Each structure stands twice: as C-alpha cells, then as structure tokens.
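Supplementary Methods S3. Input chains for the assembly prediction are listed below.
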Amino acid sequence: MRPNVIAAGHRALRFPRHCIGGMAGTSFKHEHLPAILEEGVRRGFFEVHAENYMGEGGPPHRALTRIRQDYPVSIHGVCMSIGGPQPLDKQHLARFKTLIERYEPALVSEHLAWSTHETTYFNDLLPLPYNAATMQHVADHIDEVQETIGRQILLENPSSYLTFTESTMTETAFIRELARRTGCGLLLDVNNVFVSATNLGTSALGYLADYPLEFVREIHLAGHAVQSDENGEPLLIDSHDGPVCDAVWALYETVLARTGPIATLVEWDSAIPDWPTLTQEAAAAQAILDRTVSSDRRIRRAAV
Amino acid sequence: MRPSNLKISVDSEAAPYAADFAGRLLDPERPAPPGVTAPAGSAAARRFGIYRNNVTVSLIEALAAVFPATLRITGPEFFRAMARFHIRATPPTSPLLFEYGRDFPAFIEQYPHARSMPWLADVARIERAWLDAYHAADEAVLAPESLACAAPEALATSRFVAHPATRLLASDYPAFSIFSANRGDAPVGRIETKEPEWTLLTRPHLGVEVRKVSPDAAKMIASLMDGVPLGRAADDTLAAFPSFDLSAAIAGFIEAGAFRGFSAYGAHDET
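Predicted structure tokens for the full assembly:
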C-alpha cells in the first residue's frame, strides 16, 4: 500500500490511516477547531466540503491538516455537476484529485445532481430526469471521476421538490443501476429521503425498501426547514440548519437494522450551533450505531 | 471500475433539462420549465421556485460572506437588493465560491443607489483582497535578519519578491478606516478623516493582517512589488516625498510580512 504522505514545504507529514467504520461524525466548521482541540481526541470523524479546501494555502489547509492528524476525514464534493449533460470541468476534477491525494480521506463522495450549466455555476444541487440518456452520461461522469482519483466515490441521493415527465425510471432503480455499472458506492442521505417523500407525496419507507442498501458506505443525517405548500401540505426544504427530526431518526434506525453499522454524518451547515450541541447530535447517532453493533453480536451469538 | 468511456458530449437534444432550468433560474419573470411536475394539487411553478430561490439566496449569502463590512455599512436590505442585481447580471463562473465577487466592487461603483457612498466600492475591494490573501499559497515571509546580513551595495540592486498573500490597495477615500470600523462587531464610531488611504494586506503568520500605510511607504512597496530594485525604488520615493524615512518603511514592510525574499543582482542588471 502506498505510504500515506503529504508534502508540506520541506517536510513530509504522515497522516495516520484512521478507521471510520461504525463511527458517527460531524461537519467540520473552523469556528469549532479550538473546542475540538481543547477536548482532546475522541471517537468520531469529520466531513468537509471539498471546494472549501481548493484554495492554494492559508488557514483552511492548516485547520484541516490539524484535524486530519487526529481523525478520519470524509471529503464531500458539492459541485462536480455529475448529473449535468455537459462534460465535467477538468480543472475542477484535477483540483479534486489533488485534494484527495493530499488528505487521504477515509471516504469520498459527490451528489446525484448538477450545478453548472455552460459557464454558470448555480450553487445549488439541481435535479435531473431519470432515463436511459441521463443514465449514460451520469455513469460516464462517475467513471471519469473514479478513474481520475483512482478510488471509489459514494453517490448521494438528492432531496427533491419536483419530478420530470421525461423520467422513465424510479430514483432507486436509477441509483442501483449506476452503482452496478460504475462500481461506485452510495451515500444514503436519510433526511433527503424524508424530504423528497414528503414533497413528492410518496413513501419514505417504500423508497428505502427499494433502495440498494448493499452499496451504502456512508449515511447522512440532517435537519430541514418546514414550510407549507399552496394547499397547506408540508413542504420540506433541505436546509441543514437544525437538529435531525424524529421521523428521520426513526428511518435511520430502520436502515441500520437492515445494514448493520455504517459511518454516519450529522450535517449542519448553516445556523451552526456550538460544538457541544453538535457533538450531542453525533452522540445520539453513535448510540444507535453502537446498539446496532451489539444487536448484531446478539444475533450472531444466537446463531452459533 | 469499468474501463473509461471518454466519449462525452453535451447532447442537448437528449438532455434539455439543464438548459431549460439554467435559462430560468436567474430570471424570475420566466415560467417553470416544461416537463417538470409536482404531486397532485401542487403547482410545478411553485416547486421550481424553490430552486430559483435557493440559487439566488445562496449566492446572496456567498457575497455577504465575502463582503461583511459592505453588508454592515449598507444594512441587509440594501445589500441583498444590490447583490441580487449583481448575481443576475454576473453569476459565478467557477464552482469555487471564494473566487466569486471579483466584479462586485466595480458593480457597486456603478450602482445608482450607492452613489452617496463613493467609498463603498473601495471598502469592497479591500474585502475581496482579504479573501485572496486568506487563500493565498503558504510561504515563509522574509526574516528581518536576512536583510541585516546582506551587504548594503548588494541590497541596493536587490529585487524583492512579494509574499503570495500581499495586496496593496489605493483609495481616494479613507477606505481603510471605514473597512476597519465595519469589519467586526464592535460599535462603529465616527470616522473623522476624509483623506485618501492606502491599505496593505499581508498574511505573515496564521491570519490576514490589514494595515494602513502612508503614501510614501505605499509608493515604495508598490515599486518593490513591481520588481524595481531597492535603491531605485528608494530614490524615486524620496524624490516624490522628501521626508520619506527609508529605514522605517523597510522595518514596517518586513514586520508586516509583505515580502518573501529578495535576490541580489549585479550592478549591470540595473537598467
């Protein structure tokens, strides 16, 4: 195995190869760094948005380097535009590769969505229809990313507000086929499942029953904002600005009961709370993960 | 992983969804794209509006994050309206949002409602430079002792190399004072000066430092950043500012970490 080394000026720093399995993690926000360091090393991992570390140098790299020494890190891309019809931005892909080589993350993920059209970057995760034509270009894009970075990526299911008449496949069938064709893994965002099901008037449990859980390597949990549509029905916005709701926790337990423990991130990207609040939310996920492990063991013991 | 299929092209006939969305996301006057549906009883237009709103709001927030002093000066309502115009006219062309807003100061300069604040664009220029300094490459800054060790005659013909984070900005207004007063949370006092100000941004250690420099020191630093040898830069500055204190200026820009090194050239190099 290639040594885990980064070049840092005249020195070469070796990052430990931390294990991420069965752990709960949190989004890494720089304002929490002093509290994180103060607390001493604890169990867990941190996830960062790739684009925030694509500058040449400065405090962001210093902070992430410090965190990476003590913790496993997951790098989550938010703007590769894998779901768009146009070719991937080669410059962006090269930056993504450089970042992954530098930090040797435990997990690398991107979205089933698009965000750039022609030269305009929209800064949102925009939807696509699910059919043979989009399957082909999304699969090609995933292949290109995986070949460029030399490792598997995890693809995240979107939160949806509408559907396309051009779609000929369900989202779960589309995702299963992508995983099968490209060898990518999946990042199951349970909040997105709940948000989409509510907004589209479908069943979250039904979605999870059809979803290819065997490919899942990471789970996202997050809070959403509740609005109402013109008929007074709930309309959920994937806002990542609050605690995980009870329904999402319940769905999460349903998933883990079927899969066993999977690295789980509590995403919180705006209205960011203080560090103790965020760790409490991660501790809640960790407790469920640990319970899953022990019930796994009970089942195995019972089977012996 | 299966072998690469590198035949990728934009097939807009087969995949018009992105073009249909893109043309409408930044234009609130246009209806929802064809082919989008919402569950029974809901209007697709309303659902499309969520994406439109996300795009606009997230980009306004991106500009607010780059230009917090500008936001504080104008107030949120004014800022959001101004930013919304700018976003629709000049959306980002890079997925790296820390690169966004380079055209915003020039937009502010032309924005009719900001005419009563002619200094606002320069404050925004300092904020944009601050973010560039923040993300600039890591390099050690020039140590004071390295200058002390150089022979004076070699020093006169030396050219200095700016640190990657270093930015120098001129303003016809007291932009530094207005920036400094509004960049944090502290109460803003009355800004008494009306004088033009030069602002130097550097990143000598952990964070970005912003300081005001006098016009003579600014001329000196600007010359050095342009690659003018030290001796000639000092002569030019002295000619323009007879009371220029060279050793104080050097001590100042070394302490600020404006340069990362210098290279001595022979006298023949001096042209």
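The beta strands of chain B are 36-37, 159-162, 167-171, 197-202, 209-213, 259-263. The radius of gyration of chain B is 25 Å.
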